[in-house]
Amino acid sequence: MPIVLTDTQEMLRDSAMTFLQENAPISALRTLRDTRDPVGFSRELWQRCAALGFAGVMIDESYGGSGLGAVPCSGPPC
User: Fold this and answer.
1) What's the pLDDT tens digit per position in 31-50?
2) What is the three-state SS of the chain?
3) Which of 22, 25, 37, 69 has the smallest CB count inside 10 Å?
């Protein structure tokens, strides 16, 4: 069953993909892994994601989120 995204969901997907491609390349993730970084993630990157509103995508608007909810997965790798 194909998933049809709304225009807003497509915009969010495209925005997130572009942001992560530019700011979180696989090489940066491998560096975190290979150096056994004790935090395990980039605090700076997380702060930037939060500033863009990514952390509140599934949170209801009444609680300060975007209220976009989850999109069900229709197959592998879900």
Assistant:
1) 888 998 888 888 999 999 99
2) CCCCCCHHHHHHHHHHHHHHHHHCCHHHHHHHHHCCCCCCCCHHHHHHHHHCCHHHCCCCHHHCCCCCCCCCCCCCCC
3) 22
User: Residue 50 class from Cβ within 10 Å (0-12 exposed, 13-18 middle, 19+ buried)?
Assistant: exposed
CB < 8 Å & 24+ apart, contacts of 55-58: 57/12
Domains in the chain: boundaries? 22-72
